[in-house]
Amino acid sequence: MIYPIVVYGDPVLKESAIDIEKDTVNILQVSEDLFETMKNASGIGLAAPQIGLSIRMFVIDGSGTEDKDMMDFKRILINPQIVEMSDGDWVYEEGCLSIPHIREDVTRPNTIKIKYLDENWEEHEEVFEGLKARIIQHEYDHIEGVLFIDHLTPFKRRILKSKLVDITKGNVKTAYPILAPLKKKVV
To answer: What residues pair up with 6 in beta bridges, in sequence order?
Structure first.
């Protein structure tokens, strides 16, 4: 099922999501909904809070990118924990389906080690670098209640304030359905 994407201003995006206990959530259905919603919005990652579910889960699918390294990068991450980050930082322009039409440079570690459960409740610990690490960190932030704009300077956020207010009110055109907190309906 394709869900509207929750946009900036909705409290669910600022909450720290809760861990998922086995057999309390239909993981296969939620992951299918996340992938379908993400693909409909032309995204490469989507966290459960972005469809209104405050649970620690996100999906990634890099198959739609032109980057050969990303073509087979598809994951369902449940209750992830970043256990290690590199010292070296990398600046890269990010955007977010929950903050449409805003892109800004964000500094993040280039390499991370993450522990997570997959859809079969099997535990994994993997090291990712480059774009894969960045996407994971961006989606991980969502389940921590952090948005990419929270990494910007206060000055940059002030410059974006009127655009963010418009997003909150639903005064933004997107190619995918959104749920704007001050409109209280799907736009």
So the answer is: 179
pLDDT digits 0-9 by tens, 15-52: 999 999 999 999 999 999 999 999 999 999 999 999 99
Domain span including residue 122:
5-186
Bridge partner list, 105: 93
For residue 132, the surrounding DSSP H or E stretch is helix 130-144
Please indicate whether residue 139 is annotated as part of the active site: yes
pLDDT in tens, 131-176: 999 999 999 999 999 999 999 999 999 999 999 999 999 999 999 9
The number of distinct structural domains making up the chain is 1
Alpha carbon distance 79, 16 (integer Å): 12
pLDDT at 173: 96
Q: State the CATH number of the domain containing residue 118.
A: 3.90.45.10
Q: Which residues contact 184 (CB under 8 A, 6 or more apart)?
A: none
Instruction: Please report how many Cα atoms fall inside a 13 Å half-sphere around the Cα of residue 182, on the Cβ side.
Output: 11
Separation of alpha carbons 112 and 127, rounded Å: 6
Active-site residue (options: 32, 93, 139, 144): 139
